[in-house]
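User: Can you recover a sequence for this backbone? Please restate the input before giving your answer.

Assistant: Of course. Working from this structure:
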């Protein structure tokens, strides 16, 4: 029970309720499960990736093999549209002594220093011995500083719902519309937090989007800083968010982006439906 509820006005409560009503949508919570040892074809972070011998392994722009930091077995996770329902979805990054985890500037597009790959089907005969013979990099074979993923950990996937938080780049427009509907005030020329009393701004910041998980697919991204997307229309869908997390067993790092940050993949919804991964946007931020 919260014995010290945040002070806020009736207007702030109405804004929060209306934003929640307008923006609540389904997303997939990704939970790192340290109690279960994942296999080659399971959803997981780190470890040996699933990879069939019939396909060329992803390399960066210098010809170095990339490292898989996350994979989702789509059928195992029971994903629904617009995500693929079959096969394996994977996220690779360049680990060629790159302290930016394969990200150029504050955002990069699929191809040169990271890769998003989908396998339509999964060959259950792929073995760890085959993958080890390919000498693919993993969290255990590269320098600790070049990868955000520190261990191999299984991922559990559950379908939930959440509302937009204040760090999402679309929040300003939603807030403006809600304010116009509730008060008749056009505040489109101002930053949303300057329109309200400080206590109300803090209430919205700490209330909206608080149900969003640290690791997720779809839904709304939760940034440590500001939304870095320069073209919201072309990257309107959160494909994957993977945040920093410590082990609940020994308190050591499982995933760490800089200083307690998070990594994000964004895609245009139409491209996601078409299974076109060529213009996925990759970015990460930290405190």
């Amino acid at each position: 029970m919260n014995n010290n509820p945040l002070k806020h006005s009736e207007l702030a409560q109405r804004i929060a309720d209306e934003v929640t009503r307008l923006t609540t949508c389904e997303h997939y919570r990704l939970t790192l499960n340290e109690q279960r040892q994942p296999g080659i074809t399971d959803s997981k972070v780190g470890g040996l990736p699933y990879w069939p011998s019939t396909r060329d392994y992803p390399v960066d722009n210098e010809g170095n093999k990339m490292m898989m930091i996350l994979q989702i077995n789509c059928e195992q996770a029971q994903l629904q549209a617009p995500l693929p329902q079959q096969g394996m979805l994977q996220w690779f990054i360049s680990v060629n002594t790159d302290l930016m985890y394969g990200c150029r500037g504050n955002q990069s597009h699929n191809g040169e220093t990271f890769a998003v790959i989908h396998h339509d089907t999964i060959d259950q005969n792929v073995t760890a011995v085959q993958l080890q013979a390919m000498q693919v990099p993993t969290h255990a074979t590269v320098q600790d500083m070049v990868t955000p993923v520190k261990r191999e950990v299984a991922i559990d996937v559950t379908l939930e719902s959440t509302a937009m938080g204040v760090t999402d780049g679309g929040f300003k427009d939603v807030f403006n519309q809600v304010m116009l509907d509730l008060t008749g005030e056009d505040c489109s020329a101002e930053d949303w937090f300057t329109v309200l009393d400080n206590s109300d701004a803090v209430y919205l910041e700490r209330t909206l989007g608080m149900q969003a998980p640290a690791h997720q697919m779809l839904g709304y991204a939760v940034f440590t800083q500001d939304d870095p997307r320069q073209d919201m229309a072309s990257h309107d869908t959160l494909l994957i968010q993977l945040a920093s997390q410590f082990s609940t067993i020994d308190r050591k790092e499982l995933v760490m982006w800089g200083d307690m940050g998070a990594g994000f993949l964004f895609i245009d919804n139409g491209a996601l439906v078409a299974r076109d991964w060529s213009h996925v946007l990759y970015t990460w931020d930290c405190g």
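That completes the design. Residues 10-285 form a domain with the Hypothetical protein YwqG fold fold (CATH 2.30.320.10).
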